[in-house]
């Protein structure tokens, strides 16, 4: 059956964010435009957004740098406050809230939206170092390679690891195995909280 061209298609409802996160502040232009719209409304004139948008854009373009800087400074301070509030909120979130928010962000990315990376829980267990990196950490702490650049250190560590006898490699492999078991048990407990 053909679609009725006169039938209206219902817009999908916007879902509220699962986790209550701080709202990103508007840019300096947004602040200027909001102020302009409030002045127009207060004057009693009828508001035509397209016309007022063009008028505000022209005013913004012709605004002197000192006046623009006031809005830019407001934006910078608002953005710093936003970053601080976001950091505090991320520290307060539970594993279940991280999972919900990351599921929401994944759905947005799959729908083609950009700018929604997964959130990383600072309280989640950290994966342990591999046996090679445990060895490299010990070499780095010995300070024998401090005079080398990072690239030269990496090469020297790889060469030292390749020359290391198997019995000494087993020490690092065993350390890694023990740390991995601890990590897996901590991760299981963490994931149980997220469910």
Protein traits:
195 residues; mainly alpha; 7 helices
Explain how this protein is built:
This protein is mostly helical and 195 residues long. The chain has seven helices and no strands. It has helices spanning 28-43, 49-62, 65-92, 95-110, 131-141, 150-163, 166-194. It starts with 27 loop residues before the first helix and ends with a helix. The mean pLDDT is 87.
Spell out the helices and strands N to C. HHHHHHH
Shape: elongated
Count the DSSP helices: 7
Helical amount: 55-70%
Mean pLDDT: 87
What's the Cα radius of gyration?
28 Å
- Give the strand tally: 0
Give the terminus-to-terminus CA distance.
45 Å
The largest β sheet comes out as: none
- The computed structural class is mainly alpha
Give the oligomer, counting copies of the same chain as homo and different chains as hetero: single chain
Strand percentage lies at under 5%
List the uncertain runs.
Answer: none
């Amino acid at each position: 059956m053909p679609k009725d061209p006169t039938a209206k298609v219902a817009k999908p409802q916007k879902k509220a964010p699962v986790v209550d996160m701080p709202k990103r502040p508007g840019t300096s232009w947004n602040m200027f435009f909001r102020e302009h719209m409030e002045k127009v409304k207060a004057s009693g004139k009828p508001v035509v957004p397209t016309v007022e948008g063009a008028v505000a854009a022209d005013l913004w373009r012709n605004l002197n740098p000192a006046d623009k800087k006031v809005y830019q400074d407001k934006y910078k301070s608002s953005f710093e406050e936003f970053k601080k509030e976001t950091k505090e909120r991320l520290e307060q979130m539970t594993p279940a809230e991280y999972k919900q928010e990351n599921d929401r962000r994944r759905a947005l990315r799959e729908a083609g939206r950009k700018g929604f990376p997964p959130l990383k829980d600072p309280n989640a267990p950290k994966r342990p170092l591999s046996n090679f990196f445990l060895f490299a950490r010990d070499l780095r702490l010995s300070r024998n390679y401090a005079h080398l650049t990072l690239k030269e250190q990496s090469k020297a560590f790889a060469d030292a690891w390749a020359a290391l006898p198997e019995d000494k490699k087993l020490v690092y492999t065993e350390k890694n195995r023990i740390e991995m078991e601890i990590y897996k048990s901590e991760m299981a407990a963490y994931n149980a909280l997220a469910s």
